[in-house]
Design a protein that fits this description.
Blueprint: H1 5-9, H2 19-27, E1 31-34, H3 46-53, H4 69-81, E2 91-94, H5 96-108, E3 114-116, H6 133-136, E4 144-150, H7 162-175, E5 178-182, E6 208-213, E7 226-229, H8 233-245, H9 251-260, H10 265-287, E8 293-294, E9 302-306, H11 312-322, E10 328-331, E11 333-334, E12 348-352, H12 357-373
Parallel strand pairs: 1-10, 3-4, 4-5, 5-6
Antiparallel strand pairs: 2-7, 6-7, 8-9, 9-12, 11-12
Helix pairs in contact: 3-9, 4-9, 10-12
Length: 378
């Protein structure tokens, strides 16, 4: 039986690899506080469901490949409210942000080509942009096609400064490469004077590939609505080929997503306020645990934590199998899930603060006692 080299080269997600251990713990009667995955518990806006109820065409036909005009227009107005000048014909609808990222890579790269992606390694917590221009440029060669940026960053919670963003634009222009800007957490920025989007780079918008999604913003992860946007007609012509190849994104979900853009701004303001409160609970709780090192996340709803353990994945499995307090335990994501290259024994973990504050407090209390009891503590 033959399988392609491409599929065999793909690895199982290190994060989701631990789900069976969590399922086994639940089957044994444990309650598991899941800090491992960014699935919000925030209520989806009613405008989404109200719009779904209005969808009743005579025939559910194929939608246009690039996305229905109503949604592209709504997204264009949304971007303009952020002073990001994308027109409807510069926005193509995708099946979530993941498909948008896949499109970008397929358009830019042949086998052997490279994309520079900052590893969220703890020592470089503030990610790639804290390096100087002179340090980044030697990493670029004739096969480099783009720099891929998450802003605000999943998994570190870091935010790029305007100086860092302009620096990356200079590098992209000088070397004739693209910037893939994943900004799905744009609304979740805390204590920042002003968020600068890569879409504000007026000097380089023809090489900024904006990747976006409504999933986390409006708590509709299962809807799978995202987009890819750029002010580059040649690039968009290539996107169209891929859109036509996959026919269309769900007509119902596109129609419903239009309703999301009718959601009052107060919804996102309240969500931001709640995540900031959760961030504070998580960060202050982590600081109180002996041996843990972390930085205060400035955006998104994740942080990377350096643990006083020999191996984060082993520690998580040990908690799920052997440690609980009153039948409750905690699950986070091992740092190895976020590194392209790593040695055995990675002791960083990503934690998402997507639980209610009282549940975060319980999870942190369990984590504190687990760290103290773990046989592989360092």
């Amino acid at each position: 039986m033959h399988f392609s080299d491409r599929i065999q080269a793909l690895k199982i997600s290190p994060i989701r690899r631990l789900i069976p251990y969590a399922d086994e713990a639940v089957a044994r009667g444990k309650k598991v506080y899941r800090l491992n995955i960014g699935q919000p518990d925030i209520k989806t806006p009613e405008e989404y469901f109200d719009t779904v109820k209005k969808f009743h065409p005579h025939t559910v036909a194929y939608a246009v490949s690039q996305g229905i005009p109503e949604l592209r227009e709504a997204m264009s107005e949304y971007y303009k409210s952020w002073n990001i000048p994308y027109e409807p014909d510069e926005i193509f609808i995708t099946s979530g942000g993941s498909e948008a990222l896949s499109f970008a890579v397929n358009i830019l790269c042949d086998p052997g080509d490279e994309i520079l992606i900052p590893e969220p390694f703890y020592a470089n917590y503030n990610t790639f942009a804290t390096l100087s221009e002179q340090e980044i440029e030697p990493l670029i060669n004739s096969r480099t096609r783009a720099i891929w940026i998450s802003h605000p960053c999943n998994p570190t919670g870091a935010i790029y400064t305007p100086d860092e963003i302009h620096m990356l634009a200079r590098i992209a222009k000088k070397h004739d490469i693209f910037i893939i800007a994943d900004e799905v957490y744009r609304e979740f920025v805390y204590e920042a004077d002003e968020f600068m989007s890569f879409g504000h780079l007026t000097e380089a918008l023809d090489r900024v590939i904006m990747v976006d999604s409504v999933s986390k913003r409006y708590s509709v992860c299962g809807a799978r609505i995202g987009c890819i946007a750029i002010k580059n007609k040649e690039f968009l012509a290539q996107v169209m080929k891929l859109c036509q190849g996959r026919l269309c994104v769900s007509a119902l979900e596109q129609f419903a997503a239009v309703g999301l853009y009718q959601t009052p701004k107060s919804y996102l303001q309240e969500v931001n306020k709640e995540y900031k409160l959760r961030r504070d609970v998580l960060y202050n709780g982590l600081k109180s645990i002996d041996g843990i090192v972390c930085h205060e996340p400035k955006g998104a709803f994740y942080t990377m934590v350096k643990m006083p353990v020999d191996d984060a994945e082993k520690f998580i499995i040990w908690m799920l199998q052997n440690f609980d307090i009153n039948g409750e335990t905690t699950m986070a994501a091992p740092g190895s899930g976020f590194y392209a290259h790593h040695d055995q024994g990675v002791n960083e973990m990503r934690m998402a603060y997507i639980l209610k504050r009282e549940d975060l407090e319980k999870a942190l209390n369990i984590l504190k006692h687990a760290v103290e009891a773990y046989p592989g503590r360092i």
